[in-house]
Amino acid sequence: MKRLFFPFIFILIMAVLAGCQSGGNVILDKAAISKAQTSIKDLAKIVESYKRLNDGNFPPEDQPLFDSLEGFITDVKKDQFIPTFENTYNKMILEMLEKKGGINFTHNELADLFAPVVFSKDDVDMTEEEIKESFIANLEALEIPDPTESDIYDSLNAIFPKRKTEIVSYSEITTLMDTTKLKKGKEEILTPDQLTKLKKDARRIYGSSLPPFNTDPAKGGWSQPKWIIIEPDVDLIVEHRAERFTERNGRAPRARELNTWRREAETYASNSRVGYIVWVANDSNNSLVYAKVN
Question: 3-state DSSP call for residue 104?
């Protein structure tokens, strides 16, 4: 039965190789393709995390991949795949703030920030004040003046120790912390002149850097990666088994035998599902790059 599965992979790989063999600037294209391949492997690891935390299920195939990965991919991480000027600018602000010593939050400020997020979740039967008190107590138990995002994650989810799923994801924490740091940095720490200079530098860097993927459909790119799930065809497997059975035994299989083969084929097909992420590298050939999800 396995021989039925591999032609799909062969066709996919041939499509990838075909996209990489036309002309263009060889030196530039090799660098662009290598950059895209490295990035798409990172994206595959995020999908693997999704699969691991969703009982072995892949993201839905009929939806844009980044929409399906909400909660598993932060805005900062997504910017590595689809950079924007605004994200480049914000990243430079955060880097400058770190050079100036970073922005520290008191336990009360963190509680004011995250208690409404926890309160908005399903099945939360505590008031915001109760959530704040519990969160602050968990932070104080750490006995550290400046909790990291990992500390915040642990302290928030420790409010509900018996809950089977996380109450606040790590990406939610990272996004909210970055948003708050940017707001405080722009309003309280960095001067207008510093912000103007950073914006000019960000525009120059964004304009001169080559992102890993071509996301412009007008130039042959794709706005998001294609998410393909390859699975053996159950009907084809049963049909081939029936043909072989008839050749060997001189009779057609009975209904009972066909039902048994179908159950076996459905199990095999389910266990043999493989996910592939396919995208367009930002090179002169619009080369396809892909990553297999383990």
Answer: coil
Are β-strands 288-293 and 226-230 bridged in parallel, bridged antiparallel, or unpaired?
Answer: unpaired
pTM of the model: 0.62
Q: Which residues of 96-114 are buried (b: 16+ CB within 10 A; e: fewer)?
A: bbeeeeebebebeebbebb
Distances (CA, A) of 258 to 60, 219, 234, 238, 249: 30, 50, 12, 7, 15
Nearest Cα neighbor of 238 from 210, 219, 259 is: 259
Three-class DSSP category at 288: strand
| Four-residue CA torsion sign, 30, 36, 40, 41 | positive
pLDDT tens for residues 219-263? 999 999 999 988 877 788 878 888 888 888 888 888 888 888 888
**265 three-state secondary structure:** helix
